[in-house]
Fold:
Amino acid sequence: DTGVSQNPRHKITKRGQNVTFRCDPISEHNRLYWYRQTLGQGPEFLTYFQNEAQLEKSRLLSDRFSAERPKGSFSTLEIQRTEQGDSAMYLCASSFSGLDTEAFFGQGTRLTVV
Amino acid sequence: DQQVKQNSPSLSVQEGRISILNCDYTNSMFDYFLWYKKYPAEGPTFLISISSIKDKNEDGRFTVFLNKSAKHLSLHIVPSQPGDSAVYFCAVMEYGNKLVFGAGTILRVKS
Structure:
């Protein structure tokens, strides 16, 4: 399977705990994106990397969120001191960096904060 | 301020008929548009795209139309099949190839 892989698929955590998600992009892709989707909405951009460099972070990404992409391969998204409002589907996507190239999404990580 | 709007939350169509999904955007500077399909518990899957230099792009049963003056695009599915039942997202591409999505339209194709 050479698609985008995300782990875990589901995560239930208590409010205040820290969680970390992992994304393995398509190996040839140099760009990696994180999106968040809540019920009834489309995915919303959080941040993206080109190789190992984090090029942009959305205003949605509060100080409790941090993302890394060491060595320009897999990426992790960590949420510290989770809140109930963090409950959502977290989607990772990857693409080439050329103009007008579509992104390929993983299956997402469903986070539930109780 | 929604930059991409899909005003129909849901659409129901008979198998074999045409499905038309609509999308409006606000910024005339957008120049690349995409449609994604999403099944429950899966990530979005790329369906079809169109550049602003075109007004139509076709791929099998799927055709996307772009009306730049109206800032409107539509996705036509002909003929519709039960397996097309899913949530369809319209998206525009920003700098860095970031995507701005609409809220989605749930398509139900009845057999």
